[in-house]
Design a protein that fits this description.
6-stranded antiparallel sheet, 15 helices, about 475 residues, elongated, alpha+beta
Length: about 475
């Protein structure tokens, strides 16, 4: 009887499989040119946007895109966001997520292949390697070479340039948080604060590790989008695919060979060698495929060499590929379908709500905080007094003279701490683009507040602008 193998000797399933460094070969073609353009535009936007100016009037920052942490403001051209309006960020993130789903339904992993910062900076780092060391074979040979002066020099140059690009990335990040025109010379001259250099180190270090050292491992193991992106696709989504019906049976061939009784794939592996994540697209759609299309450019180059038509590896929908397999010469692009229409509807709703919120945005708002220690004070006259912290958010850059009244408590009197006298109204002065904090006492006759808690409203009026803000709170009393 044959003995059973030892179970402990069986290989274990691995959640992470160690892989060697991937050195993609350079290619030329449509998708490579699109990646060059996308890289140039995105890097230009990232590094030049902080230097755009926008006139907001005297005393206001003139940087078009600015996150002013000390001033607790975020500026985007004509839009100014206060901390209390963080819901705009929520709406923007939701819009971006749905837009990504919509983009995926139409054109697959277009974001990953051309627009993702990981892809852009990894591409930059690979180009640096190519310039310093050489093409794919030269880089592979250098990795296998024993350490010596020549290898060390090339590696130092490569990593030095990587660090320079990473530092530029970190500097670009910090310029969005202060006046870029003044901050950049401070950074370059060593006069910036420790916090600035710390931010550059964190962001730049992340760029160096992710794009220089981790590279495709980020896309394969760390990126959550890779895990669920296939759920965004349907048979009409444009994706990178190998047309097996045309390519198989594959095998080596010479220029001039007859392909009438065999597949068009010559098994050259150039599609694999050009892939930034090192996959073989001929094995079907895979999690690690970022949809960059470089394998298409590489394969088309080979097809030209053998006089074969382009499109053995193609950027098209499964529906169209099946149509070509059936011999249909005019496959259709179906953009309008249930999935995409739902995404358009959701984007329209989110965009409409955000535009409405911006169009009807308040320029005057208040926050009221009831003092808790003590909740109330009984005066010798028998009246009851409550204290409140009353904050006025003046979201325009002009000072405002305001009138504060009380509604809901008969005979209530208002006293503004720091001002003389009490009365049914109080005058407040709110400085432009500031949060004014006022200590307010409200005194009410005992008969007007018989319950332990009485609801009432503060009414703040800007007569010049015709704006009234009503805020509800409670008045505490002994109760009956």
């Amino acid at each position: 009887m044959k003995a059973e193998p030892d179970k402990a000797s069986k290989p274990h399933h691995q959640a992470y499989a160690s892989a060697g460094t991937i050195h993609p070969r350079s290619v030329r073609g449509l998708f490579r040119n699109l990646k060059w353009w996308a890289m140039g535009v995105l890097l230009a936007v990232w590094h030049l946007s902080p230097f755009l100016r926008w006139d907001r009037g005297p005393g206001a920052p003139d940087q078009a895109i600015l996150i002013d942490l000390p001033g607790r403001r975020a500026y985007f051209f004509f839009i100014e966001i206060w901390p209390q309006e963080v819901y705009y960020l929520t709406g923007l993130l939701l819009f971006a997520a749905i837009a990504l789903f919509f983009m995926s339904a139409l054109a697959g992993r277009l974001w990953c292949g051309f627009l993702c910062w990981q892809t852009v900076y990894t591409d930059v780092f690979v180009q640096i390697e190519r310039l310093v060391i050489g093409e794919r074979n030269a880089r592979i040979a250098l990795d296998k070479q024993k350490w010596g002066g020549a290898k060390l020099a090339k590696k130092v140059i490569v990593h030095g340039l990587w660090l320079a690009v990473s530092a530029a990335c970190g500097i670009g990040f910090t310029l969005y948080f202060d006046n870029a025109v003044e901050l950049l010379p401070q950074i370059l001259s060593g006069q910036a604060s420790f916090a600035i250099y710390g931010a550059i180190a964190v962001v730049g270090g992340g760029c160096y590790v992710m794009a220089g050292l981790a590279r495709e491992q980020v896309c394969i193991y760390m990126c959550p989008y890779a895990r669920f992106q296939s759920a965004m696709f349907d048979e009409h989504s444009a994706i990178i695919s190998y047309e097996a019906w045309r390519g198989e049976k594959r095998g080596p061939a010479k220029v001039g060979d007859d392909f009438s009784s065999r597949g068009h794939c010559v098994d050259c592996n150039i599609c694999v060698q050009s892939c930034p994540t090192g996959i073989d697209i001929r094995n079907g759609n895979q999690l690690a495929c970022i949809g960059c299309g470089l394998c298409i450019d590489a394969c088309n180059t080979v097809m030209d060499r053998y006089g074969l038509p382009h499109g053995l590896i193609t950027y098209d929908s499964v529906s169209n590929q099946q149509a070509r397999e059936r011999g249909e010469k005019h496959p259709k692009i179906k953009l309008l379908r249930a999935r995409t229409l739902v995404y358009v509807a959701i984007l329209s709703v989110i965009g409409g709500v955000m535009l409405y919120a911006l169009g009807t945005r308040k320029t005057l708002d208040v926050n009221v905080l009831h003092e808790r220690s003590p909740l109330y004070v009984e005066l010798s006259s028998g009246d009851v007094r409550n204290g409140y912290t009353y904050k006025v958010l003046n979201m325009v850059r002009q000072d405002r003279d305001l009138t504060l009244t009380v509604s809901g408590i008969d005979g209530a009197q208002i006293e503004l701490v720091g001002e003389n006298g009490t009365g049914p109204t109080a005058k407040l002065h709110a400085s432009g683009d500031m949060v004014g904090t006022f200590r307010v006492y409200v005194t009410a006759p005992r008969a007007s507040v018989p319950d332990a808690k009485t609801s009432f409203d503060f009414i703040l009026t800007d007569a010049a602008a015709g704006v009234t803000v009503r805020s509800s709170t409670v008045f505490a009393a002994p109760g009956e």
